[in-house]
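Continuing the series of single-chain predictions for the mutant panel. This is the parent chain; the variants come on the following pages.
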Amino acid sequence: MSRILAIDYGLKRTGIAVTDPLQIIVTPLTTIPTAELFDFLKDYFSTEIVELVVFGESKHADGNLTHVGDKVLQFATFLQKEFPKMPQVFQDESFSSQEAMQTLLRSGAKKKKRREKGILDKISAAIILERYLQSIGKY
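Parent structure:
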């Protein structure tokens, strides 16, 4: 079996989440500087079997892409050229950061821990991945 990987792309940091090989459990994997994203993915794809990349899609309320949404699309296009056999999908990421904060609050995380933005990024990626799995009836 293979994993599904989700990306919560940010201008400074990017959150990554993955499923287990059976695609049952979603786990926040890491947060990395966006400048290092391609190298991270290249290494990850060389050690893990990934069948799909899910990008969080950032849109305004009117449906148009945000500035970050444009950058996500640019990176997805670049990644597709580098890994032409790797399928990609886009999943609405609306309110995933707020939902990630609520998840941290419910978990009892201390205030200092909640201030670490990297934690929010990888939890947001996990939320994006869970939404995708729900949308296809796997979750």
